[in-house]
Amino acid sequence: MARIKIFDTTLRDGEQSPGVTLNLREKREIARQLARLGVDVIEAGFPVASPGDFESVSEIARVTAEENADVVVAGLARAHQGDIERAAAALETAAAPRIHTFIATSPIHIEKKLQSTPDAVLQRAVDAVTFAKTFVDDVEFSAEDAGRSDPAFLEAIFAATVEAGATTINVPDTVGYMTPWEYGALIERLLEAVPALRNVDLSTHCHDDLGMAVANSLAGVRAGATQVECTLNGIGERAGNASLEEIVMALETRKDVWGHATGVATRELYRTSRMVSMMTGMVVPPNKAVVGDNAFAHESGIHQDGVIKAVETYEIMSAETVGRDAGVLVMGKHSGRRAFRATLQDLGYGELEDDDLDRLFAQFKDLADRKASVTSEDIRALVDAETTRVPETYALKRVQFQSGTGVTPVATVEVEVDGVAHEEAAVGDGPVDAIYHAIERLTGRTLRLESYEIRSVGHGKDALGEVTVRARQDDHVVHARGLSTDVVEASAKAYLEAMNKLAAGLGRPVGGTRPEDAAPAPDGATGAPTP
């Protein structure tokens, strides 16, 4: 059975999603989880875009090497020497580095964006691959906007870049323009016309502008592609990228059709999806395939009856296969520390430092006092929150509010600052608004709240409430999250976490680290939307 490589670009193309901001610690934790997930390649970022992006690629390269993760770390670079040198420097500590260089190949991009000619573009591609090979053995070349490029030109540029030393050739449908039959036919044509492509990895990279990214990627695999580039939850520019979990589970569930396998540990899919959703602030829709809240839910009486009699009547894969064991744990307020540690290990979290375990156990005890039963989803939510905990300049001690029909909402908040408790009260349009005004008075910081999302973790009236916010102060933005059985308290925790991130200097500058924000190439080529 042929092996399909999974190239994850959540930390590069995924972070280019409008409104997404990840700090260094969050990128590092996502990269560690991607390694546990078993992806073949982690595209860690675009080093030349900013000092922050360079640092994150360098850190991911270092961490994966130190932890002996069997994963390639890639850095993106436009087809010119400055970008390639910067990528090589960021990847110096990687155990398995890859430079991923690209240039646009469609007539509209060559003429309007690059203001160049096909011959000049081909030469730049060859020069870029040749130069990258002086730093690393593993070089990937992408033809940006291949979906709207002349197939004959793609044949020429791919033949030339393979000869120059490229080990992976990527065929991006950058603007999500193609249909599955068109994309599959293109892959077949390229393999037939350029025999050298059979000796390297041929990769898909499809965007979802017309909702066909997954279908196009699978059509590419069926036609002979050996690598798929994708993101968790399908996040990415505009309408997003091909969804990693959908690609993997399609290949896994329908091996009879595809005849291919991946190296992904499918039981880590849900955990990884939740981590990415939490850290990016991009909430997964309930009807999202594989990882959505409703993916394994049944409300129709006919469906419920069938599932009770035999789960395979309506489920083509089990929730356990993707790590969605949402059963109630035999855990409660009388459970001990040793049992709690064993439960964490059963959920795949391995050994935790004693200090981390103590904090989690205290949170678990507090939760057990509030809830009738504690589920595995509750435990995962607590661990994920602890993973991204930032230094607490402001620590919430107490929140109290009064609200109702015909009553002006008023809130009192007690926050500890440098070990000293401070209290402030304020009114607002609702309890959350009042709490946020009180926090702003107390901290002396005023944030612009750009988004506010609330969802339940698990089910039932006593489910945990998870609040995620995106907030801006001056030219810096942060995502933050609060967790509590009381959604108003969760809202306060989320806002204070945003304050703490900004106080710790963890906000991302507005404008971010997207490739198009990078300095223009010395030869006049512009920064461009990437493959």
User: From the helix content, strand content and strand pairing, which structural class follows?
Assistant: alpha/beta
Name of the CATH first level of the largest domain: Alpha Beta
Low-confidence stretches: 326-330
Number of structurally distinct domains:
3
CATH topological fold name of the largest domain: TIM Barrel
Superfamily (CATH H level) name of the largest domain? Aldolase class I
> How much strand content do the residues show?
15-25%
Q: Please state the overall shape, judged from the principal axes of the Cα atoms.
A: globular
* Second-tier CATH architecture of the largest domain: Alpha-Beta Barrel
Number of helices: 17
Helical content band: 25-40%
DSSP summary, beta strand count? 17
Mean pLDDT: 88
Strand order of the largest sheet: 2-3-4-5-6-7-8-9
End-to-end C-alpha gap: 29 Å
Which radius of gyration do the C-alpha atoms yield?
Answer: 24 Å
Main beta-sheet annotation: 8 strands, parallel, barrel
